[in-house]
Design brief:
Helices cover about 30% and strands about 35% of the residues. It is of the alpha+beta class. Among the domains are: about 1-50 and about 135-165; about 55-120, no CATH class; about 270-390, Sandwich (Immunoglobulin-like), CATH 2.60.40.640. The strands form three sheets. Strands 9, 11, 12, 14, 15 and 16 form a six-stranded mixed β-sheet that branches. The protein has a five-stranded antiparallel β-sheet with strand order 3-2-1-4-5. The protein has a five-stranded antiparallel β-sheet with strand order 6-7-8-10-13. The longest helix is centred in the first third of the chain and has 38 residues, at about 10-45. It is elongated.
């Protein structure tokens, strides 16, 4: 008998996409801004170190005004002329990244370049019309690092939406359905259960989705390898072989992330396992009915193992560093099968030991109960999913 799909509440269903969309917008805006305000100017600054120098003459100066809702800022504009191979060029680029500030700051900059003064500029030998007046690295190049805040905030919102939002909210059985997956073989929902307390039959939500893990790894790989590639490019242009040696561990981490992305991408096509339980808030010492259902090509799975796992997490500080220790204090094997029909659908009744600890969460300690599903697939990423549920103290 096939289990009836279990619907989520509208608030939870709408909230997750909104969080992901909002976080994605922040993340995308921060990534684009970081690229154009830090990566591009940095690459141009480094490339200009090999440009040719030429004497130039300042022909005009002015202060440009920039008005916005936050106020008015000013930036210096210096126009200069230089000659390459008998042809005269004109440019007004002072730096590859020009920032704006107060009028007094802009005036101080212009004092260094009075009209008619002689100075040195740098031009691209392959494209003489491209020139810059000051090619050294300055504090303005660090301005783009502030855009990392958007990336971090956006990434955190996306992560919360993908992995944490509604994690404690398992999905209740609709009153129009017969029972949950755990009751699919004729078992009845326990009378007296209260959805407001999280009790009753439930289809559990995985701790993280496959797409969520894939996107998180993809973003991490792009970000990490993007930064490392800039320094590799610098080493290549400067022939700084010592830099390659220094970057070796960072390159290896980047390669590991790429492999992880590929591994997670392949896992997107794995069979999907759904878990249902007869009571989403199981009292210590009580029995709970667990059901599993696998959709997809079950024949690919060599062995399916379903277990109930109790985990303790402890966070502590040592010096200036914070550590989190994780220890599994209980594992109950629910199913261990190689039979395709049992992997496609099955149920089991399990007793939660009374002498263990109920679900608990504090600032530095946490007790987490999950149903862990592992599927062994030959020459392919294995199935490895976790479904959190709640164990509460025994009723007195």
């Amino acid at each position: 008998m096939k289990a009836t799909p279990i619907s989520e509440s509208k608030a939870l269903g709408c909230g997750r996409p909104l969080l992901i969309a909002f976080g994605s917008l922040f993340f995308l805006a921060g990534t684009v801004a970081f690229w154009f305000t830090f990566i591009v100017p940095l690459r141009q600054t480094l490339a200009a170190r090999s440009w040719a120098a030429a004497p130039c003459t300042v022909v005009a100066v002015e202060i440009e005004t920039h008005r916005s809702d936050d106020g008015t800022t000013y930036s210096p504009k210096i126009t200069y002329e230089y000659t390459v191979a008998g042809e005269t060029y004109r440019s007004d680029r002072r730096r590859f990244l020009e920032v704006s500030s107060s009028r007094s700051w802009a005036q101080e900059v212009l004092k260094e370049f009075p009209v008619g003064s002689e100075t040195v500029c740098y031009y691209d030998p392959e494209q003489p019309s491209e020139a810059v007046l000051q090619r050294d690295f300055s504090w303005s190049n660090l301005f783009g690092l502030f855009t990392l805040l958007f990336i971090i905030v956006g990434g955190a919102i996306m992560w919360y939406g993908l992995f944490r939002y509604g994690q404690q909210n398992v999905r209740p059985v609709s009153s129009s359905t017969s029972v949950s997956m755990a009751a699919a073989h004729g078992q009845r929902s326990r009378k007296g259960s209260d959805d407001r307390l999280g009790e009753g039959p439930r289809k559990l939500r995985p701790a993280s989705t496959r797409w969520g893990r894939f996107l998180l790894l993809l973003v991490a790989a792009l970000f990490w390898n993007g930064i490392v590639s800039v320094f590799l490019w610098v080493g290549m242009n400067e022939e700084a072989w010592w830099l390659y040696l220094f970057l070796t561990p960072f390159v290896l981490v980047g390669l590991g992330l790429i492999v992880g992305v590929g591994h997670q991408f392949l896992s997107l096509w794995n069979p999907i396992v759904e878990i249902g339980i007869s009571n989403a808030a199981v009292p210590l010492g009580s029995q709970v009915d667990v059901a599993w259902q696998t959709e997809g090509n079950v024949a690919r799975i060599r062995r399916l193992v379903v277990s109930i796992v109790g985990t303790e997490k402890a966070t502590y500080t040592r010096g200036t560093s914070t550590y989190t220790d994780t220890e599994v204090f209980l594992t109950i094997e629910v199913a261990n099968t190689e039979a395709p029909e049992q992997m496609r659908f099955g149920t089991a009744t399990v007793t939660i030991p009374i002498d263990t600890m109920h679900s608990f969460q504090a600032n530095n300690n946490e007790i987490v109960w999950t149903i862990r599903v592992k599927g062994d697939i030959a020459r392919w990423p294995d199935i490895n999913e976790e479904f959190p549920f709640r164990v509460r103290p025994r009723k007195r």
